């Protein structure tokens, strides 16, 4: 890919039909050799990426508003990140932090500790992915409380390994055929004011979505004294970028404290500056006991982190570990990533995200398919409906829009039953935002 060609415009450049001839060859081989469990919404075969632009094997350039599923927070191949990776790879790739010490494990923890919500001292566990971070949080919750049950939310996505999958309640296909899953997980509705599960309006809501824990769950099926933790996404990701009210988290924290239950904030998708703050929890005054992070923490390198109050980290050597977790190359990328986020990218996410949300605010009024627009920073969801009164989900129309945007050079992904998620790299400019919103509005029309 030509860096010069990208920096001149920073916008898409399509040269062939889609998919192009070289892409078609790869697609045929993929169908022959690769697991069919992957879900690909359009035939993009990526060759390279710079900034917010990716290029396919036929030389077509696309504006990436998915960021590798909210992963490349600093953009594709940020020069400072690439330099850190190359430098570390030339020195040491692996020795295993499970059995030996890495200086970078300490340095990243030192850098993250003052950024965590709340005053309590923190300790950190390193794995390879968000799913691994969630699994570690589940184990630590049980170990530190002596309790074995969990509360999670309908619509949640916490991962695909069997423990994390037991918390996940996003789509039936993710669980179908894999039972029995981990027992002792209880799901309740997530606060979604556009589709209130209790058919209430904001004025008449008394936070039933949190109070149901005490009012129903603890009185019928789940003993409070056996509940180790509540797992919650501050902004729910896979179900459509759903943003709760602050009052929900106030009530949730009060319930947890009354019963000695831990709160685990899953910031795998919402964290690392995406919402215009380092953590989405900060928007709501949420101070979790445990936090999981991954995706944007290392700009595309595999790294999952579980942060917990130091008072909870009482498990001994051998209790939990990961051979590859926190390898030096990923940690080098993470150290630079956090610096870049603090220098400018969190602020840019807040500024450009606010600009986009302001531009989209009247879409539900003007555009027939646009039911709801919501988000924080550069974590924005657009929910499509066939009818504004009944709010019937427009799933087929959403899928068509995602593919049509691809054919116009814009990469977006679906989420939930009929939503589009916008999660671009945090480096995007207003010109790139204008292009993306223009394509989406044109497609919606």
How would you describe the overall organization of this protein?
The protein has two domains: 3-78 and 344-444, Aspartate Aminotransferase, domain 1, CATH 3.90.1150; 83-340, Aspartate Aminotransferase, domain 2. By secondary structure, the protein is an alpha/beta fold. The protein has helices at residues 3-9, 21-33, 67-70, 79-89, 103-112, 130-145, 162-167, 208-220, 246-259, 328-360, 363-366, 395-407, 430-444, and strands at 46-50, 53-56, 61-64, 122-127, 149-153, 185-188, 227-232, 262-266, 290-293, 304-309, 370-376, 379-384, 410-411, 413-415, 419-422. Strand 1 and strand 2 (53-56) form a beta hairpin. It has a seven-stranded mixed beta sheet, sandwiched between helices. The chain has a four-stranded mixed beta sheet with strand order 1-2-3-13.
The dominant shape is globular
Which strand order does the major sheet show? 4-10-9-8-7-5-6
Helical content (DSSP H or I, runs of 4+): 25-40%
- Share in β-strands: 15-25%
Reported for the largest beta sheet, the result is:
7 strands, mixed
Q: Write down the domain tally.
A: 2
What is the terminal separation in angstroms?
33 Å
CATH architecture descriptor name of the largest domain:
3-Layer(aba) Sandwich
Weakly predicted, low-confidence segments? none
Could you write a compact summary of the structure shown?
By secondary structure, the protein is α/β, with parallel strands linked by helices. It has helices at 3-9, 21-33, 67-70, 79-89, 103-112, 130-145, 162-167, 208-220, 246-259, 328-360, 363-366, 395-407, 430-444, and strands at residues 46-50, 53-56, 61-64, 122-127, 149-153, 185-188, 227-232, 262-266, 290-293, 304-309, 370-376, 379-384, 410-411, 413-415, 419-422.
